[in-house]
């Protein structure tokens, strides 16, 4: 029996575990404010808030309900736009949208309101930039966004006096959320019982952001093994200079990790290019790797970081494989049917090591890359001691640039070396013409992104006009 609190109501359901949260709230609970848009996590019309217990405290995040399996909200608090309504007036986010003319047709509005209220619940230091970032997963086809940005600015301004020590009481008193939120943490703690779902075929699923896009209809006929909230598959740890990720770690977990933010310059900005806030909140790193997409953003990042995977079968036998050896062909993996990725390990950059990630797509945010690339370079003075480069969108698998990386080792950081390395790079690319660009365009992007690594990492030595 799946149990969770939906708005102010305790839900107990034996619906098939493969049911999405979106379908449950609309068709079983008749809460039609949560809209069906793309069903692929792109539009944000189905955005809800999910509150989970973390280290004894209830924390909220926005999520796309169209990609959220129902078991992933077991023991949690799910909030739709109906659950944010005050008894006799608009809440602060709704009022800001009205005051700033932030809505026209209204189809996207519930998703925006949910994201804005989620921001009110989670923000520690409200700013216009972070308020707009909180709605980066919501698309509007009517307003041109400026009115919504003004509504976000108004909300951020009202949050300036938020009481951090007694945040929920302050949010209720100042009409951001209804008063039933005051008791939710106690009620959620009361339903913290493990969920046991019988597994037959044992097809593993984490956040659902890949599988529910690719196999939405088929999943309803499968028995799935839900991994998202298994404690043994969650967590980030450090052993010296090594970072070890459990397989259910999300992109947001990595964006918020203080050690990674301190160690890798621009880490937050790199990961901001990966999808949107509601997707980053539920998308697992192992899912991005196992999907096998030739342009998986985090796969490209980890390839350049010399990542190693731990694969574990149902008998709990484990083996390790380098990520660069994991992809055997298009969507073909060095993974047995009963194995799952349980850990991802990589070395953090040191004082002698630098990392850079580049991505080109039709939109800057919330889009799939045409070509993406990452590079780790260790250097001693003006000499490259070790290099590891990767590129996506230029072949049938995420590409580790072995020949290019090998060539760069023990070379000087000069324009001539970089240009020669780029010629080797082109021999490792095999792009095709498709909706994201022609073969020639992708080869050009590969060249430019490769050059960009050096321009970014060695600005005093390598200038853009040197490489033209």
UniProtKB/TrEMBL annotation:
Gene3D superfamilies to which the protein is assigned, alphabetical = 3.10.20.30, 3.30.465.10, [2Fe-2S]-binding domain, CO dehydrogenase flavoprotein, C-terminal domain
MF-aspect GO terms: 2 iron, 2 sulfur cluster binding; FAD binding; iron ion binding; oxidoreductase activity
Domain annotation FAD-binding PCMH-type: ranges: 173-351
Question: Where would I find the 2Fe-2S ferredoxin-type domain in this sequence?
Answer: 1-84
Keyword annotations for this protein, in alphabetical order, are: FAD, Flavoprotein, Iron, Metal-binding, Oxidoreductase
Q: Name one Pfam family in it.
A: Fer2_2
Q: Which CDD domains would you find in this protein's record?
A: fer2 (cd00207)
This chain belongs to the protein called Uncharacterized protein
